[in-house]
Amino acid sequence: MDYHKYSDEELILYIQNNFGDGFSEVIDRYEKKLLGYITRILKDEDLSEDVLQETFIAAYENINGFDPKRKFSSWIYRIAHNKAINEIRKGKNKVSIDDAPEIASSEGREKIEAELGKKEVKKVLEKEIETLPLKYKEIVILRFFEEKSYEEISDILKIPISTVGVRIRRGLAKLKSNININPEDYL
Predict the structure, then answer these.
(1) Is 119 helix (H, G, I), strand (E, B) or coil?
(2) Which one, 14, 78, 96, 154, has least CB within 10 Å?
(3) pLDDT exceeds 50 at position 129
(4) Any idea which architecture 3-90 has in CATH?
C-alpha cells in the first residue's frame, strides 16, 4: 500500500480502521523530527532515542483515541513532549525544570559578530537557549527549530495561544539580554 499519498490525518484514519496497519509510515514521517525535538530538550542522545521509542509505543497504543479532525503532528509532539518532561522530572537528565539563565555576556553584538561570524553566533545562541527556563526553552525550540505555528504549540503544550506569544517574547528577551544580540536575526 502506498501510504505516501495520504495526509497525516487520512493515514491515521486508515490505521484506526485497519488495526494498526500502516503505523510504520508514521514512524518514517516523524522519527527524525521528533528525535531532534526530544534531543534539544534532553541533551542526551541515548536517552532521547529511548524517549522516542516510548513516544511511538504510546502513539500506537492510543491511536484509536486520536481525533482525525485535529492535527496529528500536534498530537504526537504532545506525546513526545510529555515523555521528555517525565524524564526530566525523574531526574535522569541534567536539565532542571527550574533552570534559570545564569550566564550573561558583556560583549556587544558587533564584537561577537566580528569574532565569531554569523554561524558561530548561532552556536552561541543555541547554547544560551539551553540556559533558558524550560517553559521558555521548549517554546523557542518548537517555534524556531521545529517551525510550529502558535496554534500547534498551543495544542502541543496545552496552553492558550496568548501564553505561547508571551513566552516566546519573554524567551527571546532573555536570550537578547544574555548575549546582547537579537536572537530572531539568527533563528
Answers:
(1) helix
(2) 96
(3) yes
(4) Orthogonal Bundle (1.10)
